[in-house]
Amino acid sequence: MEQTNIEALVCSTLATASKRDPQVFSAETQLAALAIDSLSLTTLIAQLEAALAVQLSPDQKMAIYDADDVAAIVAVARGALAGEAPA
Predict the structure, then answer these.
(1) CB of 69 closer than 8 Å to CB of 25
(2) Which residue among 27, 59, 73, 79 is buried most deeply as judged by most CB within 10 Å?
(3) CATH 1.10.1200.10 at 3-82, yes or no
(4) Can you give the residue ranges of every domain in the chain?
(5) How far does the chain reach from its first CA to its final CA, in angstroms?
(6) Rounded mean pLDDT of 39-57?
(7) pLDDT tens, position by position, 52-80
(8) What are phi and psi of 28, to 5 degrees?
């Protein structure tokens, strides 16, 4: 999957999980500013695993819960596809 497609996937999946307009999300979107909750992130994780056909490790899941912005989640998704552990 191309880098831009991963970002688009994360943005659209996060929009669906949080019941927000997809136009609100970009790589720079700060999650705290939109009050993204843990339930939305849990839904995001499940949908990303299905869409990317990967099983995120506990460390990768924690990195998503700890993410400050969409770019950090995109980095975790790219790492999961490459078989890398989160930084």
Answers:
(1) no
(2) 73
(3) yes
(4) 3-82
(5) 21
(6) 92
(7) 999 999 999 999 999 999 999 999 999 99
(8) -85, -5
Amino acid in the structure at residue 67: A
Asked if residues 70 and 25 have their Cβ atoms less than 8 Å apart, the reply is yes
d(CA 26, CA 55): 24
Going by the DSSP 8-state scheme, the letter that residue 2 receives in this structure is -
Residue 2 confidence class, pLDDT cut points 50, 70, 90: low
Instruction: List Cβ<8 Å contacts ≥24 apart for 49-55.
Output: 51/9, 51/13, 52/1, 52/6, 52/9, 52/77, 52/80, 52/81, 54/80, 54/81
Residue-wise DSSP of 12-79: HHHHHHHT--GGG--TT-BTGGGT--HHHHHHHHHHHHHHHT----HHHHHHHHT-SBHHHHHHHHHH
Among 32, 26, 30, 31, CA closest to 11:
26
